[in-house]
Amino acid sequence: MTKTVLKGAITSIAILAGAGMALAEGGLVINGDLELTTEAPAADHLAGHLTTVYSGWVFRDSFTQAMEMDDFDNPGMLFVDAGEAMWNEPAGTSGKACADCHADASESMAGVRAVYPKWNEAAGEVRTLEMQINACRTENQGAEALKYGKGDIVSLEAYISMQSRGLPMNVAIDGPVADVWAQGKEMYYTRTGQLELSCASCHEENYGNLIRAETLSQGQTNGFPVYRIKDSVLTSASGRFVGCVRDTKAETYKIDSSEFVALELYVASRGNGLSVEGVSVRN
Amino acid sequence: MAENVTPRVRVPSSAAAGEVITIKTLISHIMESGQRKNSDGNLIPRSIINRFTCDFNGQNVIDVTLEPAISTNPYFEFQAQVPEAGTYTFTWYDDDGSVYTDTKDIAIG
Fold first, then answer.
1. A73/B75 Cα distance (integer angstroms)
2. What pLDDT is attached to residue A231?
3. What is the CATH number of the domain that holds A193?
4. Nearest-Cα residue of chain A relative to residue B25
5. pTM
6. In sequence order, what are the residues at sequence separation of 6 or more whose Cβ sits closer than 8 angstroms to the Cβ of residue A62?
7. ∠A280-A163-A38 over CA atoms, to 5°?
8. Chain A residues with CB inside 8 Å of B8's CB?
9. How far apart are CA A47 and CA A49, in angstroms?
10. Which of A54, A99, A215, B87 is deepest in the core (most CB within 10 A)?
11. Do B73 and A82 touch (CB under 8 A)?
């Protein structure tokens, strides 16, 4: 009897080791049941540049990858909880909570994250999720705008993003957003800073290669908001862009600038087809 | 007063009598070490969780002293043998005097 149990234990250890080996190429499965797409055929607009797009998850070490595979081990979930609390809490002069107008986020916000940044007809502008959250705060709640990049706004974004986890990124690039998208594309391929590097120099020409001790990814945004182990903080895409532009030793744009809106739209469209990861974990 | 402190615990809902289970706990907390300075050069006061305990049906399972060098959102994973059905009680002690608790029931079967 004891022998059988022991044998069982050894077999399961062998299987575990196998799974560990395969992690880098294997799938991203959350909580053992939700399979996310981390590798997809590149969108048509990337013809001549990329044939396959990959989530940043693929490039991380197995330890970091594993943290994202279990909601308990993913520290980003703490911010999702904080975002949910904010969702239900009245704010501003209106005394209204997000939930008063949008009710159950699992219905009203399903699919929203996957199509942002997107055109807002009434405002006549492209909006990132951060912009839309602040628009609702200032115009609908009578509350003050929140600072971009990290903190409360990213917790709200995380909660909204979780309602689309597993859905493919599907950002529109034509129609009213075409000009802004083209501006973002131009920025992506323009070399800047003392190092004269473009986003493409690192994330298109060198993904998979090491930069100092880090493996470069394609710089996709489908995983945002991202929990960064390095500084134990949940970061939005705009927050990440500031860091990446600084890395080229260039003067960065303001985090809430129209330039970063254009860049966020363009970069998001490069990830069309990859799953929204809700909140991801990166180093 | 540390803000947004939320404990999270994962315990299996059932186990065989005598089985060894894995317990995971996480609490969101800034864990300010007391060593850092703010932009004005003044020391930021220490604010940490200094003790964590887990009890089962009134009997202590684990009692941990935490030091300032422990990073934000302290995470503990440990194993415990389940002698009988009952309740795990988890307690975190904050420098500011706050005490946070969570409980989880476990059945035999």
1. 9
2. 84
3. 1.10.760.10
4. A72
5. 0.87
6. A20, A23, A24
7. 40
8. 72, 77-78
9. 5
10. A54
11. no
- Per CB-CB distance under 8 Å, the chain A contacts of B10 are 72
Q: Do A72 and B26 touch (CB under 8 A)?
A: yes
Quote the pLDDT of residue A10.
Answer: 32
Q: Are A276 and A169 in contact (CB under 8 A)?
A: yes
B27, B8 contact by CB (below 8 A): yes
Across chain B, mean pLDDT equals 94
pLDDT at position A14 over 80: no
Q: Which domain holds residue A218?
A: 1-283
pLDDT, tens digit, for every residue of A240-270?
A: 999 999 988 998 899 999 999 999 999 999 9
Say whether pLDDT at A89 is over 50.
yes
Pairwise CB contact (< 8 Å): B71 & A232:
yes
Annotation says A244 is catalytic: yes
| Closest Cβ opposite residue A72 in set B4, B24, B73 | B24
Contact A78 B28 (CB under 8 A): yes
Residues B5-21: pLDDT tens digits? 889 999 999 999 999 99
